[in-house]
Model the fold of this input.
Amino acid sequence: MNSTTVTNPTHSAPAPAHPGGESDLQIAGDILAVQHLLQPAREHPATVAEFAGLARSIAEDRSSWEHLVRYDATTRWYHRLRTGPGYEVWLLSWVPGQGSGPHGHGASSGVLTVLDGELTEHTARGPLRLGAGAQRVFAPGYDHEVVNDTLDGAVSLHVYFPGLTEMPMRTCSPAHSESVPA
Done:
């Protein structure tokens, strides 16, 4: 099995590899694998690194979101936390067993940050467990399914830019997909 490593001048450890040998950067642009790209949040983010910084700053400010979280056993609970020029921020909760279903994000890019608990991201390359503090960055055309495979609740934060206008649901066959409004 081939293994790919990604290094930068300030950190020489290899990026985490997935079963297929690709690094997180090659799969979904995991911003945390390239420490020099991490930037503090600006009032109006414009780059992927700034959106990741916005998500981290919101995650660190528990008092701004923790009191809003609700758990619903019948459907995924979500709350639009914030909007800005060209983006929106959503707070989601996940009871054990809840999942998003396989989907894409239309023309939107995004940042997924796990705030509490653990979620599993399923892609064509296999599952990836994401604990509290984990962050995933993705571009348009990235398909995945997010599931709470644990026995405890989980909370996640999602930043979409531009704001999410569609969420194409996928079936087992990539040739057949269905678009549903976000």
Observations:
- Residues 1-18, 23-28, 172-182 have pLDDT under 50 and may be disordered.
- DSSP finds two helices and ten strands in the chain.
